[in-house]
Amino acid sequence: MSSKPKPNYYWSILTMKCPRCRRGHMYKDNNPYKKLSLKQIFNMHDNCPVCHQKFDMENGFWFGTGYVSYALTVAISVATGVAWFVLIGMSVDDSRVFWWLGSNIALLVLLQPWLMRISRVIYIRFFVRYDDDFESHKPKEFDY
Q1: Is 135 helix (H, G, I), strand (E, B) or coil?
Q2: Alpha-carbon distance 97 to 105, whole Å?
Q3: How far apart, in whole angstroms, are the C-alpha atoms of residue 127 and residue 140?
Q4: Separation CA 35–CA 132 (nearest Å)
Q5: Could you give the CA distance from residue 90 to residue 69 in angstroms, rounded to a whole number?
Q6: From CA 119, how far away is CA 72, in angstroms rounded?
Q7: Per residue in 7-58, pLDDT tens?
Q8: 127-143 per-position pLDDT tens digit
Q9: Spatial distance between the Cα atoms of 35 and 61, rounded to a whole number of angstroms
Q10: What Cα–Cα distance (Å) separates residue 19 from each residue in 54, 56, 140?
């Protein structure tokens, strides 16, 4: 049995940790809003600082994150729509639905840097699984 505790799956996603060891940071800077440029938002380590798992497994690997980002955006929009409907109500007669649309668009624009990062964190978890004994196993690699 391993003496070290197993890191929580969901907390490791929210804190953007490596999927293999759940200890190393995937991004060099934890704040996606520090400098709003694509270079800074996607400024990832090449390999996990703890278990040395390669993050960019093959050319074009991150193209699939668009689907994850889309699903997260739809989930957020549905959640804000339900909350708006319950708390304020929806009506086209007094344009409350348009106020929700504008508020939802503003929220999604503000969340975009975080959504772009978290979609990468979720996407790589489809391909790299947690390894409790990562010190004695080689990191997963894809063949080109």
Answers
A1: coil
A2: 12
A3: 9
A4: 35
A5: 26
A6: 8
A7: 999 999 999 999 999 999 999 988 888 877 777 888 899 999 999 899 888 8
A8: 989 988 888 888 877 65
A9: 25
A10: 11, 13, 11
